[in-house]
Amino acid sequence: MRDGIVLDKVALNLGTADFDFDCHIEAGVITAIAGSSGAGKSTLLNLIAGFERPQSGRIFIAGTEQTASHPSERPVSVVFQDHNLFAHLDIFTNVALGISPSMRLSSQDRDRVENALSRVSLAGFGKRMPGSLSGGEKQRAAFARALLRNKPVLLLDEPFASLDADLRLQMSALILDLHTETANTVVMITHDREEIARIADRILHVEKGQIATDEAKADYLSRFAAPVSPLSGTV
Amino acid sequence: MLTTAERRRGIGAGLTVLAAVILFVGTAVVTLLAWDGDQSASRLFSAYTWSILRFTLLQAALSTLLSVVFAIPVALALARRPRFVGRAWILRLMALPMGLPALVGALGLLGVWGRQGILNGWLTTAGLEQPVSVYGLSGILLAHTFFNIPLAVRLLLAVLERLPAEYWLLSASLGMKPVSIFRFVEWPALARIVPGVAGLIFMLCATSFTLVLVLGGGPAATTLEVAIYQALRFDFDPPRAIALAFLQIAVTAAVIGLIALLPAATDTVRTAGRKVLRLDGRSAASRLWDGLIIAIAVIFVASPLLSVLIAGLRADLWKLISGPRFIQAATTSLVIAVTAAVIAVSASLAIITARQAIRDRRDPVLAARLLSASLAGTSSLVLVVPPIILGTGWFLVLRQFGNVAAFAPYLVAFINAMMALPFAVRVLEPALNDHRHQTARLAAALGIAGPAKWRLIDLPILTRPILTALSFAMALSLGDLGAVALFGSSDLVTLPWLVYSTLSSYRTNDADGLALILGMICLALTILGTSGDKEHENA
Fold first, then answer.
1. Angle at B362 between CA B358 and CA B366, to 5 degrees
2. Chain B residue with the nearest C-alpha to that of A85
3. Do A10 and A175 touch, CB atoms closer than 8 A?
4. Tens digits of per-residue pLDDT, A141-174?
5. B19 at A interface, C-beta within 8 A
6. Could you tell me the domains of chain B?
7. Pick from A70, A72, A88: CB nearest B188
8. Where in the numbering of this chain does the ABC transporter domain appear (chain A) (predicted)?
9. ipTM for the predicted complex
């Protein structure tokens, strides 16, 4: 079985919608999942993360079948658009939960948490509560936890959607840095073509619960290169 | 956004309500203060008075502890299982005791836990002799937990359901075990509102009247409210009633003050559009525990309700409802309930509109801000000065004018209106504020004002919350025994008074039938008020 992520004839029905995914996401690259609202982008991510179980088909991550495994057993970390931090726990605890879900930490573990916070420029933020942090700082704390978990796959569910343009640039740079450092596989849902241009290597386009196209960034962007016709409004 | 005339009208209406409420409550309190002060003061420090106070606080504290401690695992189990067949019906069941008159609930509990009750019958068959007593402290605790566990479950469950869906996904992704999920996610969320929920339940139990009257009584199991009633109704000892009334006001004021100091419930909101997926609690042990705890809660709440239904159906209902006493009681109850509901809802609308008018000014003067705060406090005044105290004060006022019975129906209607006021404001204020937030600018820009605004913009949206508030207020009034207990007579008979007097004359079968009818009317009004309310369904 190939490395990376493989969805082998995966089928799922969620009441009113059917999803059928059959694809291979390369290891060590940044793959963007694009598509319109309701097309199935989040469902694809949920299947990989283990939040949804397929009714048929198989899922392999890093060469191991994970179809029936619990989310915590999968070699993945997840960062959502919002609510990545428990609002009532301080930043240190939020990040440290990535190492020990019962918060039994050795002094070495505590050092690792502090280092991860430093790595995302949040040194000294450990005692602060999430409510006192900006949107960008909260996302950086979530990345610190993901960094600490050191899983081969990082799943990002529109992680920058609630940030302004400057912060998006900073966060993109952070993801590229972490990716270069860890060589992990990154799968990111995004609606933003500029974001795709900045950091993605490949693009999976999801439509009506299926993968419509799987292409390299250059091919994807070339489709949008032609100027928009002022009369027809078409590309 | 309001025109000057609209603002003046709004503030004027609010001022009128404020003056009327202060006059009504103030007259009762001043009369109590002025009545034979020396004798009352000496009664305040008697051993009897302090033993009543001790029991009031003890039963309220134990009832609160039992209700909250049992409600937490039920709420956790229901939150852990957001989708299972029958869940919506269990949540509806948890709402029923809130709309059920206390007297009907007490009869249901007697049917299950009483000497001839189903449960005691089984336990006696099993060889135990009277294992559970429904009278005295244990009966009061049973009754208070029956009414307050469902309330606590709904409040705690609402908090758990408001947690962002991502929390549960993160917990699963991080591999958190049930203990860690409780420690780091569930308990921190619950801990913020448990003190507030406990304070509310303590308040309800400390001021509980009907349940203590039916299941308690006697010097060893009497609360301040019941002792006030006994002092006036049986012993006619106003100084004792006044001393107890002041203790009651001190207790309620202290509890309300403490509740106000407690932190508000979390303002975290659920992530829009993301479905709640709970991946924890999938082990067989967890399923068994959740199923067991939910089943116990359902049996505990449903059995008295079923008992009321079964016992009531055994009575000759047709004979009961066609009897002159029932027709008299039903007519009196209905007239009092409609009057109380209309007064409560009108006063609530005036209070809310006045507060909106004050907020409408860019920089309200100090007097306006004080008026706004006073109006907010007005609706909660009845919580500090409970109905039995209002009744006592007004009883002493009206005695000076001769026959108290002649004024009694008006007085009961006003006291019921005061009781319903905080609930009506709570239902109407968010609806009116939301409506104003959404429409005020557009209505002002289009120049729609006065009757046209009321007809075209306000009425279509506000009809539903107004009807909800009316039905709640009517249900409260119809089921209330507190105010009418002081004034009930052969001339003034309401449905709860009829049930109580029938029960007191040991016509248990008839009392069961009347309780069923009263319960069905109040529950129908409550269900009518909450129908289509998704928030209630989900909470």
1. 55
2. B167
3. no
4. 999 999 898 899 999 998 888 788 888 888 888 8
5. no
6. 53-224+270-314 (1.10.3720.10)
7. A88
8. 1-233
9. 0.79
